[in-house]
Amino acid sequence: MMKLSNATLDDLPAGIERPRYDRSQLTPGIVHIGLGNFHRAHQAWYLHRLMQQGEALDWAIIGAGVRPYDEAQRLKLVEQDYLTTLIELDPAGVSAEVVGSMIGYVPIVEGHGPLIAQMSDPAIRIVALTVTEGGYYLDPATKSFDVDHPDIAHDAAHPHTPRTAFGAIVAALRARRDAGVGAFACQSCDNLPGNGQRLKEVVVTLARLSDPELADWIEARASFPNSMVDCIVPATGERELARVRKMGVEDNAPVTHENFRQWVIEDDFCAGRPDWDRVGATFSDQVHDFEAMKLRLLNGGHQIIAAPAEVLSIDTIAETMAHPRIRAMFRKVATDEIVPQVHPVPGMTPAAYVDLIEVRFSNPEIHDTVRRVAFDGSSRHSGAVLPVIRDALAAGTPVEGLALSQALWARMCEGTREDGTQIVPNDPVWDDLQDFARQVRETPLAWLNLRQIYGTLGENEVFAKAFDGWLRMIWSDGVEAALDAYLDR
Length: 489
Fold this sequence. Notes:
Keywords: Oxidoreductase. GO terms for molecular function: oxidoreductase activity, acting on the CH-OH group of donors, NAD or NADP as acceptor. By secondary structure, this protein is an alpha/beta fold. The chain starts with a strand and ends with a helix. The model has no long low-confidence stretch (mean pLDDT 96). Strands 7-4-3-8-9 form a five-stranded parallel beta sheet, sandwiched between helices. Strands 2-6-5-12 form a four-stranded mixed beta sheet. It contains 20 helices and 14 strands. The chain folds into two domains: 2-283, NAD(P)-binding Rossmann-like Domain (Rossmann fold), CATH 3.40.50.720; 287-487, N-(1-d-carboxylethyl)-l-norvaline Dehydrogenase, domain 2 (Orthogonal Bundle). The protein has helices spanning 37-41, 43-52, 70-79, 113-120, 150-157, 165-178, 195-210, 212-221, 238-246, 287-311, 317-321, 324-338, 350-361, 370-374, 377-395, 400-413, 430-439, 451-454, 461-477, 479-487, and strands at residues 2-3, 16-17, 28-33, 60-64, 84-88, 95-99, 102-105, 126-129, 185-188, 227-230, 249-250, 255-257, 262-265, 282-283.
């Protein structure tokens, strides 16, 4: 067994691709906050591919986190010189490569002094984030920035010792302004509609709470490109660790991923950028259309199938797609109810994208758990499913399957499966969701009173009637009976 490190790169087992560039010559250009599996399989991979061509050697990544639990990941990566083994799970054949585009990881301490100092370095020209949809302090119903959240209130009152990533970004931009150094581009890599614009709203608003002149400077000097990111990347567990060991590599933080990636980026970088388009990324002024297609069909599709799978005790997304009723439900909802609300993009129609997603979800090599996909449903349904429902109602197109998806999620939030087992808490507000789901079991329409999630959707008679009927049927006859009834319509 070969322990992964700079010293052992030349000894990697045959068949595992390794960095061909001299990592000792790399210098930092990007700080990435939220350095989980997705970033290492996606943005870090694109940069690595550029480096393999001898380019972008001054754009290496410094990882960062803002929560205490990030320290464990930092220590794992420090031990292996920040290298990651990426394993591509293609049904036609599994392959692996070692990615070396990351060269450091900022220590995680209260007040985030080291992170602020790193982002203040003039060499850093991009600060990127992958902090999930729920990490932007947005009100679930209005999607506006929650300035009253305790973390945000703290950062406004203590701007030099912030709690949040956004507070640290504001502090670093203040330091750069005061030192006469230009701003950096702030790049969201999260599944969030208009993610760059959302990030700008959060950063500028937070800055304005403590320093209005700084907020004006950030608006004038920094940039916030929108982007769409796409790659299915499962969590790393014993299965993934065993897989990399079987290849002959001791890597404590390997990443598995599907054989598909997409990255569409608005070309708005105030301090320069790597030429990611040379290795497959797309720079486009149509990011919002790409983003809507992906969020509504892939992310929304994930939420639509995860809830019934959880209630039926199905473990993975591939197994979920092997369930004939759930697969057929996904196909019908996507084609009949979501596709009419999605615009085509260059090279892809919404109908063709449904075909692509169906194949990707069904990949038997990907051990992507239903639990991972269903996590934080309160944010993910709000961001990916509910906007489609609103658009469909406004357009007068069908919503029966979309209403069924919400009834299935409400059933999941009750916290038990049909076989009697318990669903372990899987949402930042799980306890509240579970208590409420149990309270309204006999009065399904009351679930739509969760205005922080549904807003005024419960007032729409068409949607409310469909939701009420589906949840009553699920509780009386079971999930599969409800799926059959929908498919028979």
